[in-house]
């Protein structure tokens, strides 16, 4: 596309896009879309490349969306979002790699959260990894007695540790129990531990 104004040189704007199915079978599906822009204006990157790749891997139970943005020739940002289900634990991970200053967002980081769920117990755990080191981890658990038991109780456990520059303790643990007897409406709350 050519943009022109009276008494000035024409400016060229180049825009190109393509979508392609890379793989399609019973176990895997993969599709990609690319968009490339070249333009002369100084307020926006002169060259911009965007690519999205979506992958479904049924063998591993993964859904992956990888996004790439390239600009100024050799600078590239990559974000990968992964959703997975490996029974009985669904999880989500988000990873980011970028060439900019790591002051605000680390240049190579990944955060993941995993859930576990059955009839009497629910867990959540997660981590923030910077480079190849875990910088923040957390775990939470709620356990409930089955309805047919004589006493009802809920047990709660939680802990986290962090190696970031946050105004939080580097490690914390909490554990507690709530118990009651449905026939007598008597309740006993016990919070034995917490740091």
Structural account:
- The chain has strands spanning 2-3, 11-12, 14-24, 28-38, 47-57, 62-71, 75-86, 89-97, 108-117, 121-130, 133-144, 152-162, 171-181, 186-194.
- With 195 residues, it is mostly beta strands.
- The mean pLDDT is 84.
- The protein contains no helices and 14 strands.
- The strands form 2 sheets. Strands 3-4-5-6-7-8-9-10-11-12-13-14 form a 12-stranded antiparallel beta sheet, with no helix packed on it. It has a two-stranded antiparallel sheet with strand order 1-2.
- A hairpin with a 4-residue loop joins β13 (171-181) and β14 (186-194).
- It has a domain at 1-86.
Helix-strand string: EEEEEEEEEEEEEE
| End-to-end CA span | 64 Å
Helix count from the secondary structure assignment? 0
Shape: elongated
Low-confidence stretches: none
**Helical residue percent?**
under 10%
- Give average pLDDT, whole number: 84
Q: Largest beta sheet: what is the strand line-up?
A: 3-4-5-6-7-8-9-10-11-12-13-14
What about the largest sheet? 12 strands, antiparallel
- Beta-strand fraction estimate: over 45%
Structural class comes to mainly beta
Task: Please tag this protein with its features.
195 residues, mainly beta, twelve-stranded antiparallel beta sheet, two-stranded antiparallel ribbon, 0% helix, 67% strand
């Amino acid at each position: 596309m050519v943009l022109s104004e009276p008494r000035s040189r024409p400016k060229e704007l180049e825009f190109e896009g393509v979508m392609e199915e890379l793989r399609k079978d019973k176990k895997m599906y993969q599709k990609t879309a690319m968009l490339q822009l070249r333009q002369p204006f100084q307020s926006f990157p002169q060259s911009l490349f965007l690519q999205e790749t979506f992958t479904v891997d049924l063998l591993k139970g993964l859904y992956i969306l990888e996004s790439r943005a390239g600009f100024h020739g050799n600078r590239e940002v990559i974000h990968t979002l992964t959703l997975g289900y490996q029974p009985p634990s669904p999880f989500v991970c988000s990873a980011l790699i970028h060439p900019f200053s790591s002051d605000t967002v680390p240049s190579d980081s990944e955060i993941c959260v995993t859930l576990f769920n059955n009839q009497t117990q629910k867990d959540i755990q997660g981590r923030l990894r910077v480079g190849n080191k875990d910088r923040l981890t957390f775990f939470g658990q709620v356990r409930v007695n089955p309805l047919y038991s004589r006493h009802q109780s809920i047990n709660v456990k939680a802990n986290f540790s962090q190696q970031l520059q946050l105004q939080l303790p580097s490690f914390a643990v909490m554990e507690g129990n709530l118990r009651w007897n449905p026939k007598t409406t008597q309740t006993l709350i016990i919070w034995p531990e917490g740091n």
